[in-house]
Amino acid sequence: MKNFMIQKGPGFLVCAVIAAISQYIAKFVPQIGAALFAIGIGVFCGNTFLNKKCFQAGTSFSERNLLEYSIVLTGATLLLSDIFALGLKGIGFIATQMFLTICAAYLLGKAFGMKKKFRLLMGAGNAVCGSSAIASVSPILDADTKDKGIAITIVNVTGTVLMVLLPILTGILYQHEMLHTSAMIGGTLQSIGQVIASADLVGPAYVPTATIFKIIRIIFIVLVAYAFSHVNTDPDQKLFSKKKHTEGKVKTSIPWFIIGFFIMAILHTIGLIPRPLSELAHLVSQQFEIIALAAIGMRVKFKDLAAEGPKALGYGLTIGACQILFAIVLIKLFIG
Predict the structure, then answer these.
(1) Where would you find the membrane-spanning parts of this chain (predicted)?
(2) pLDDT of residue 273
């Protein structure tokens, strides 16, 4: 605990304060919501007077760990019937959307002059779950640290732009109908934090369904990693040509918090989590979300974006535009 407070305490405390300020401001501007204020204040503070190394460990913990805890607690507020309500059509939508996103990232990357490994990293990051997916497939692709860092930066920037754009777009296209709006947000956005923030901008009621769409995408990381283990990343070889060396094994598994989410949902379904406890889990989950979103804002650095240049940013935003177009068509085909 002492080491935690020394290393991660400053960053966590800053994010918690930003979250509290954001929720207070949101009372006066409820149509914007605490989520967007948390990210906006976090971006401002993280690029100005709080841009200090001593906050990095705490913001990293808040962004990743608190979101994972929040997802587990969200399971305690849902029934299995809510999760399985997506049905085969919902799963078909997600699988097709992910496949098309990976194909688009690979083909567009070639047009932008990007390396094969970097294109595959961008495909996984955009199709599955942002930074986590990139970290999962990097060892499989034997990607270097620089490519991994650039991919994470560009994917996060793309997701941040779409996070604000999608609530507006779904209002125009679907008048914020629950299933269609949740499918667009949960089936398109790059990270789980961005999904939660974007859905919350539409309304808190949209967060659980959008999260379910996203969770199914995260589960599919196992299939994506397996597929990537069979591609040839040699720049002089075709993508699906036989590898010279195949001793590497896939070591990707379903993240622990997804398993925890389903365990909590099962316990809630069979009545082992009473309503007061479920309501408490919902309250704590919301607080974790806002703190994590403040951390996401704190970790967006303008200098990193400028360093990547317009070509890399253009590549990422073009993939994001393709994801939106794919989702519009596939929602029509699979969901109606």
Answers:
(1) 32-50, 66-85, 91-108, 150-174, 212-233, 254-274, 312-335
(2) 93
Please state, in angstroms and rounded to a whole number, the distance separating the CA atoms of residues 178 and 30: 19
Note the Cα 319 to chain centre separation in Å. Answer: 15
DSSP line for 303-332: HHHHHHHHHHHHHHHHHHHHHHHHHHHHII
pLDDT per residue as tens digits for the range 220-279: 888 888 888 888 777 767 776 666 554 455 555 677 888 888 899 999 999 999 999 999
Cβ within 8 Å of residue 137, ≥6 positions away: 120, 121, 124, 143, 224, 225, 228, 252
Q: Each residue of 9-55: pLDDT tens digit?
A: 899 999 999 999 999 998 887 767 787 788 889 889 999 998 888 98
CA distance 225 to 294: 30
The candidate with the shortest Cα–Cα distance to 245, out of 255, 236, 234, is 234
Q: Count of residues for the chain?
A: 336
How many of the other CB atoms lie within 10 Å of CB of 103?
14
Q: C-alpha dihedral over 12, 46, 194, 250, to 10 degrees?
A: -70
- Please tell me the pTM assigned to this model: 0.78
Domain extents for the chain? 2-335
